[in-house]
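Work Package 3 (structural annotation) set out to generate three-dimensional models for the target panel prioritized at the project kickoff. During this period the team completed the workflow that converts sequence records into discrete structure tokens, so that structures can be stored uniformly alongside our sequence database. As a representative example, we reproduce one entry of 209 residues exactly as it appears in the project archive.
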Amino acid sequence: MCELLQAVPSSAYIASVSNAINITNAPNVSQSLKEAIAFYNSKVDPADAMTFESVTSSPPQQHHLSGKIEETFFKTLLNNSSVCTRARLRAVSATNANAWLRAIPSIHRDLALEPHEMQVLLKWWLGIDFSRPADVLVPNWSLSHPAAFDLKVIHPLNTNLILEASLASGNSAECGEVRKHAKNDEMCSELGWTCIPLVMEVYGANGTI
């Protein structure tokens, strides 16, 4: 990412200088432009490389140059990523995949995100690990504060639960709920949410909720 941020200004310089002045009458600028072009060429695919002559005869647009840098950076990122990361990158770069980021927020139409919701979504979008206290969030739950429903299906014969399961019916599901509360209650409280674990055993028994 740092490399991308360093490369993009070169495209802005090349476009602004080549479109703004007569290069032949400014030798110092000509040298700076040549250096910027050389730096730009080192960051893009060889097929997209430019020459001083091509730039001065047909000044390029910044968005075109920046696009070529981004394309090369994206290809490099894909080649150096794991299969899982490549799949995510291709998914988020698909046509209209980022439409929700460009949507204009509207509180009156219930099309606005709370700051903490935006933080979680951006971490998810960028592939950043984060603790998620809910599988389903109901922001306008009529019975309480916003409700964070955490879903889980467990097997009572799991080695970590089999002792509790042998003592009473439904014990495994209840133990699962206790663990969910222990893990998520504090985080949910900080966000103003109510933690509601929904745990079911594979044989059909559910917890106390």
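The first strand starts at residue 136 and ends at 138.
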